[in-house]
Amino acid sequence: MLSDIADFKNTMSKGGKKWYITFIDDYSRYIKVYLFKSKDEAEEMFLKYKAEVENQLDRKIKRLRSDKGGNMIPIP
């Protein structure tokens, strides 16, 4: 699974969200995008994604890859 986090630069969504995080499944290429207000919410978004995927597929996430561009928050 690949993940990346970024901001909208000078733009904000209708709901006041400024950041987004993407999760891409390596096998199926399924993409999920979450919008949030603060970069601090990235871990919460991962845990939400993890719970959704593991409940739906009855499988565990084995690996999480990122571009290591300094934007990613370490997730336990």
What does this molecule look like?
With 76 residues, the protein is of the alpha+beta class. The chain has one domain. Helix content is 21%, strand content 26%. The protein is built from one helix and four strands, in the order βββαβ. It has a four-stranded mixed β-sheet with strand order 3-2-1-4, covered by helices on one side. The longest helix is centred in the middle third of the chain and has 16 residues, at 42-57. The two termini are 15 Å apart. Mean pLDDT is 83; it is low at 71-76.
Walk me through the topology.
Elements: E1 2-7, E2 19-24, E3 31-36, H1 42-57, E4 65-66
Parallel strand pairs: 1-4
Antiparallel strand pairs: 1-2, 2-3
Domains (count): 1
Structural class: alpha+beta
Overall form: elongated
Number of strands: 4
As laid out across the biggest beta sheet, the strand order is 3-2-1-4
Q: How would you state the average pLDDT, rounded?
A: 83
Question: What is the quaternary state of this protein?
Answer: single chain
* Proportion of strand residues: 25-35%
Ranges with pLDDT <50 over ≥5 residues? 71-76
Number of helices: 1
**How does the major sheet shape up?**
4 strands, mixed
Radius of gyration: 13 Å
N-end to C-end Cα span = 15 Å
